[in-house]
Protein 1
Amino acid sequence: MEQENEGAPIQTHLEELRSALLKALLGLGAAIVISIFFTPRLIDFLAQPVGGLDKLQAIEVTETISVYMRVALLAGGILASPWIFYQFFSFLAKGLKPKERSNILIAVPFAVLFFAAGAVFAFLVMLPSALNFFNQLMGVQTFLRIKSYFAFVTNLIFWIGMSFELPLLIFVLADVGVVNAGMLLKGWRVAVIVIAVLAAVITPTADPVNMGIFMVPLFGLYLLSIGLAALAGKKRKKAEQE
């Protein structure tokens, strides 16, 4: 009987997780369908850094449709991000006190804001820097293929946008007592190493300049995370005293 009682909460959590994932996927699917209607304009916009679509070349017959669907998927993910983040944070909030639950759900609009900031940074800063590096490397003229260019752009926007979620994730973990500001301050050396590795993986070029361009704001986000963790810690202590 005790084993059955212990297994019941686990089964309940799994059902709640499955429900949250299903709702997130349904929202993503609906957003992708909506995004299909304005994807051509978005493709034209993303091609501006190289001078427009006429500067790109397609070799395979299916390249254009694959690019269309890739951009629609990225647009759908961004459009559905508030709903997806809501499902994620609402699942984390289950089992917490009402006040703690409300604090976590407040993080939803900030999650969207941080992701949008990362996407803008990727498009306006990282992308031009990476294109200049590739175009100047060895002095060889580069003929851009539409499939590789949009794979490059969409991956850059998505992963850098996700990396900008670090402060919010730290705040949520600190709010539930998993981490604290002191722990993050002591581990700053490890954080620098992790950030360097992350920058090397995400940055599309291998030169240290572009890695540095990405590492500086990411380390700034880590410092912001420490401040948010301290704020969450103070709120948590005040709530415990009350």
Note: The beta strands are 56-57, 144-145.
Protein 2
Amino acid sequence: MELTAAVRSDRGLVRETNQDTYLVLRSPHNDQLLVAVADGMGGAQGGEVASQMAIDALIRRATGMWQLTAPQQRMAWLLESVAAANQEIYSRASIDERLRGMGTTLTAAFCAAESIIVAHVGDSRAYLFQEGSVRQLTTDHSLVQQLIDGHQLSEEEAAVHPQRNILTRAVGVEPSVEIDCAQHAWSPGDILLLCTDGLTHVLQPPALQEALQLGSVEHICHALIERTLQAGAPDNVTVLAVQNGDRSSS
């Protein structure tokens, strides 16, 4: 089963630099994909370094990943790789004063024909478009999400809250980090969407669902970036989409 991927990233209309980094890595037999998005934090230089280090850590460890067949093995690989990225970023920040306090979100997915395994830290997100509707696969590690979970804030209030950018968990900020990791089934025609918060702070789920029905993953990524720019794009924005096979077969 062919997996098709597309990605677009833009610094937006306010930021001077783009601290987002992404990954699309295809297996030697073209039947598996490793994809990820990372949104750096900690000043312009620190944010760029942290997000790139997170993606580089996945790339360096990917060689032996394609031979893993059991879901438990793939999940363990993802968890170990994100933990390694956390340690590398934290160690680098500890010895370089200019990078002190840097960190990054990281949402990564191992995609095969039968399932997706998603590892997640921070407030970048993964969505699955399936049977005509979109479902969020990840939960934000953010202050506003904690307030929502505690019934102290509504989804509508969270969207405009002045502290909506405050993370409760990020890669590289502490010596170790708790990583969410889960497996999800998908079928031919389904689409996985990874994105940074530059998208989700501007576009709401109905707009995502509408865009995910536009056709190819290239069209989807283009449309989501353009709509974000039209809405003012106050932050860097990265959109990465993976389609499982052909929609006509779903």
Note: The chain has seven helices and eleven strands.
Protein 3
Amino acid sequence: MTVPVLTDTHCHIDAYDNPVAVLEDAHRAGIHVIAVTEDPGKYRLLRTRLGRRDGLDVALGFHPLRAGNASPHDLARFLRLLPQATWIGEIGLDFSRAGVKTRKQQLRVFESILADPQVRTRPVTVHSRGAERETIAQLAQAQVSAILHWYTGPLAAVDDALAAGLWFSINPAMVRSTKAGPLLRRLPPERVLLETDGPFARSGSRSAVPSDLIGTLDHLARLWDISPGEARKAVAQNEQRLRYHSEHPPA
């Protein structure tokens, strides 16, 4: 029986010392990697650096902390590159202490990106730190079926996100965190996807890598009271549904 391929929906592959070795390890583990980027320039550089290879999609990103200081030229460049992107991310909002001063600029960029119809036809991975309610509201209004990456916001907003058709990606650091426990128990299994946010997220004492998602899946299997094989099949089916929703957006 074929083992379903899993997807690391949010990985900063360019931040590892040896990205190619990490990708090769992921391929052996049956993990497809979505390499998120922080701005259009980094997207073009990473595509050139890694080229076309099995098991990898480079996502077109505009991190909110970059977007807050962006020029109109940067936004125009992002929108110009959209047709060639298979995934979008990381985009979003950040109203934490690090980003609150650029709130208005971030909102302007995020709204401009979401207004482009092409965004509704791509899987999207979204940053929402300190701006969870605003991010969910913007995505719901735009009818974008996005993934909330490493969600740390109020549990009360989770139902709004689910009603908006959003997904949640879980990483190795989250399953080791007591703080994330209530979120994991609240999420319906059919809305859960996987991520590492590596190398920034940790897996024990080291940076997380895509192959660590096998352990994340084992934790979810115990939480859902099913076998690891059943959990892998369930998450793989979620990934297929995400792609279907992206390819067939609401009219």
Note: The mean pLDDT is 94.
